Amino acid sequence: MTMVRAALFLATALGCAAAPAQVPPSAGEVAQYNGLHAAARAGDLAQLHKLIASGAKLEARDAHGRTPLHVATFARQREAIRLLAKAGAQLGALESDRYDAVTIASVANDEETLRVLLSLGASAKLVTSRYDGTALIAAAHLGHAGIVKQLLAAGAPLDHVNNLHWTAAIEAVVLGDGGVNHQQTLQALVDAGANLSLTDRQARTPLELARGRGYTGMVQILERGSAARRRAAEKPR
Question: Is the pTM here over 0.70, yes or no?
Fold first, then answer.
């Protein structure tokens, strides 16, 4: 599901105007960039070195609140990210829609850039977006199973509840399509120990939501996960 389709799906579910997806720099914005923003977007390491040495502000913002690090992340300029981080750029800075670099890479399904960011010390635990969510919830929503596994390994909060009252497991169901990618995402969350008893605002569990949507594969994953936990709880200690 594309970000636009996902945003429209979310809007329908909430009965509200379409929620905007992440906003990468437009061609017009890129054309107007200068300094660190321009160098980060182009991956021009020599210019980045020069500008940083001259005292350019690492946390300078464009019209959408993006720092050079955000811009480099959108552009998948991984060496620029490394250089900016080494110079002291804030890895957890939020742009105007409250996305950090980790969430930007996660939504883009950019596993290599996410790997770089996490290796540099970026956190998978930040609360981001207007929905008070996390990178894990955003990735689960989109069925990015590889991203989800990276974030879980980095200590992402497994059972964080956003302001829609949805966890990553719930979002994988209610904003997913029930297909292979979302099934793999849900399986990763179940394997990591996601709390399958947490409910949405209508007191529906992920299993009830999956059944209601006819997502047979997800129902099987959730039923197996719940049964395994019951067996483990019943074992003599």
Answer: yes
